[in-house]
Amino acid sequence: MNKLTLLNEILDHNKKFVEAHEYEKYETTKFPNKRMVILTCMDTRLLELLPKALNLGNGDAKLIKNAGALVSHPFGSIMRSILIAIYQLKAEEVLVIAHYDCGMSGLIAEPVIESMKARGISEETIDTLDYSGIDIKQWLHGFDNVTESVEQSVNIIKHHPLMPNGVPVHGLVIDPKTGKLDLIVDGYQA
Ligand SMILES: [Zn+2]
Where on this chain does Zn(2+) bind (predicted)? Predict the structure, then answer.
């Protein structure tokens, strides 16, 4: 889409949306009706499909998204968001929902770094980060196996030192075409 029109289209639509009071049918509170927090992927195919496939409407869940539905650091912003959802926003269960055919599956860092260079990031910048102890390749790396990745993220959440007892953490993988869920970790059994 033309760079000069995307934002303008959004703003035009937004004005009409608000003026027509279309927001009224979405009115709810910040506390999830279904008392859960979901971590899933930013994949475009899941934007509407995932809520529909799980029967979620506005207000039903706290939804956290990133590339790959990954908790890659126990003290990063994803884990912080999950803890805030539990302690401050009444979430009582956690669902990690990755998906098949994810862009982070088998992601190889080298072509991404090549793209960065092609877009003007200098070799020197890459080297400087490298010398500073930042392993960019490792940092960009997604996962090799979606099932193992979900199990790993569930484990990080489940065993986080700040997680209270008695919060089920479930792990699932969704089909980005049909919306079918495969259960990987049943948090009630764990
Ligand atoms: Zn994905």
Answer: 41, 43, 99, 102
